[in-house]
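Notebook p. 47: complex prediction with 3-phosphoglyceric acid.
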Amino acid sequence: KKFNILSKLLDCGVVAVVRADSQEEAIKISHACIEGGIIGIEVTFTVNGADEVIKTLLAHYENNSNVVIGAGTVLDVTTARIAILAGAQFVVSPSFDEETAKLCNLYQIPYMPGCMTITEMKRALEYGSDIVKFFPGSGFGPDFVKAVKGPLPQINLMPTGGVDLENVDEWIKNGCVAVGVGGSLVAPAKTGDFARITEYAREYMNKVKTARE
Ligand code: 3PG
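Predicted complex, structure tokens below:
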């Protein structure tokens, strides 16, 4: 199951960070992203009732085995448990948390902790993180990835924070396995323009595909 989830996320190469003002908005954003080809959805726990959003999306896409619904901004193991019980297929957090890593390993759910330094990344690898979220990406830039992959060629990095349509190809070309995208993808939700989110999602998918060639 874990390998299946990872392979879908890695194939797609983009995880949509769905941070919204309401459950309804989060659901609409998620549908718009999926329609545009971004099948990796990270529902952040800053959304009230994020676990309900996860359940709703899982039920909606029950017959679409390509879609992967995970939980984001999981700050502690209690939240991770709520997310996993709701059916979250992966767990993302802004920092590394040992207890969360253990819980995810127990249930064989990919854990993607946010790491900035080599020390944190090394720890995440030791605790079995298959994909490490490089956060906040904008604070370092794509060249940092090349530098990290010198001593840690085995690490799978997913930069998040500040990824946009201008720099996404550079992140991928520098060796990132995927990117996490929030604001630059979901911003049109503020004006109710969900069709625009679908267009952006398509553009992200095209850019990642081209950058990988
Ligand atoms: C977040 O925590 O919301 C993510 O890091 C997304 O960052 P972004 O909005 O800059 O893409």
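Notes: Residues 104 and 111 are 6 Å apart (CA to CA). The mean pLDDT is 97.
Next step: compare against the earlier run before touching the bench.
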